[in-house]
Amino acid sequence: MAEYRRTGVLSIDDLSGRIPPRERLQRGPCAVIECVEEIPCNPCEEACPVGAIHVGDPITNPPALEFERCTGCGACVGVCPGLAIFLLDLSGGRPRVTVPHELLPVPENGEEVELLSREGRVLGRGRVVRTRRAGTTWIVTVELPTEELMWEVRAIRRSP
Amino acid sequence: MRIEQHPILEFKRKRRVTFTFDGRPIEAYEGESIAAALHAAGVRILSHTTSGAPRGLFCAIGKCSSCLATVDGIPNVRTCITPVREGMVVESQRGPGKLNPGFRPQPREVEERSVEAAVVGAGPAGLSAARTLIRYGIVPLVLDENPHLGGQLIKQTHKFFGSRAERAGTRGFSIAEELVKEVEAGAEILRQARALGLYREGERKILAVSRGDGLLLLQVENLIVTTGAQERFLLFPGNHLPGVYGAGAVQTLMNVYGVVPGKRALMVGAGNVGLIVSYQLLQAGVEVAAVVEAMSEIGGYHVHAAKIRRLGVPILTRHTVIRALGEETVEGAVIAGVDEHFNPIPGTERELEVDLICLAVGLTPSTRLLEQAGARMAYVPELGGRVPLHSPLMETTIPGTYVAGDCAGIGEASTAMLEGELAALSLLSRRGLKLEAEIERVHRSLEKLRLGPFGERPRAGKEKVFSLMKEVAVG
Known about the structure:
Number of domains of chain B: 3
Number of helices of chain B: 10
Number of domains of chain A: 2
Radius of gyration of chain A: 15 Å
Number of strands of chain A: 9
CATH superfamily of the largest domain in chain B: FAD/NAD(P)-binding domain
Number of helices of chain A: 5
Distance between the termini of chain B: 52 Å
Oligomer: heterodimer
Structural class of chain B: alpha/beta
Order of helices and strands of chain A: HHEHEEHEEEEEHE
């Protein structure tokens, strides 16, 4: 049994092959799809405007992303029923992570928020640089203090 | 307490009404159930047993009888599915409750009529069946014992899995809204109507329906039974305390009525339901102290587990609840690690400060109507318990009687909708319509949604049911 079946937390090893390489991220945002199980689901494949996500047949194939084709538009982030897609970006001054967010109150641009890891640990604080809406899911981009955090931060929380 | 703002839902509250509970005035909104309105006012204890143990709601969908109280002098009313009314007098009971000595029952009006097709239960399976019948020109009679149509679909705030054909990426309640709209426009609908029994007289089938003060005897040519499921219970000291709720009840309070079910919760069960409802609790502003799961691994999808883990909710596998604390309502819970035989390991007990213990330990098909009518049944653990035997075309052993959704074996809302459609297509093809291609399409969709390791159990369960069905005679 994979450890994540016990913990609910994916390790970097579980994600091997699914994380875009650093060089790709230096050229602009790219999705990371943290969906590793065989579940019948493919809205991400349909939502991708450039055909970078492949599920195919059978529908239980975990999605595979072509990093070079992905434009980092975030269309998949807003449709994924598992809220399992994030954007990573190393092209600007500071590293950025984009996460789906469905809690109130919605953070505002410029606001400082807590950065949470896959296991809910507070890893530091970051600044919200963009918020947009896909239906009732908010898509929030935060700037991070260090590049290391980009591989770990997968949620945000408004500071108490 | 009521939820004023929610990240996903909007609560459009209707006119204010006032009723009394044990003499105390309670403010509520039209359309709310008595139990939800009381909960919003901070009242969790609805009655006491003869021995003095408190009782509150548990299932919130009229299936468990834990929420009984006396309403306008009538004892044992299910407060979870009875809407509030201005001036209503609600009283808690001690024991079974007593009829007012002056009470004289009115003679019941009995109406007899015949219908071409009736659908019992207006959840995802029933609505989907009714919609399909409507599309082929039949006006079905759809009845449900709840005041709302949509069954459990109206409280599903997450986006559905699957593909576009099964509405993947759309939230459950939005799918329910569309279905309800289409069915309301084309079917005859009876709300708060309970199917009491199905009686067979030769070739004829009579469905007895209790509705308000009247009794309806329907001679039905075709019947689609979609009676859903009920929440499983768990044995532990204190499990009777108000504040121990089924996951479905917590969803009903939060997502249908916009009422906060508690301040801090313990979730029991890490299947998809437990994981999804934990996330919904966080969205409603309720803290989740932990999710405990007796098995050695999480039962639900990893992506659902990941959503609550990254918001700081611990998931403790090989742990269970061993006691609820509190005298009149839940004030805490004791959890403990369990060994491979699910026995608590001494010394691992831990106390959690919670006022809500949410049970998400599985569902059992609600099959009483079909069992009473004499449908052949089988115990199929993969499908959650006793289920009516049925063919791949959803026909039971009673002629002209079809089954779909959770009462035909526990599944997902998406598979329930497909089974409902299939039952309707099957009924229509018995009447001579050529629908092979449509039936084939639905079969393929069902097959697709049951692919992969998570579909293994329902797949195996259905195979068992279909092969048993082949061995018995219909009639």
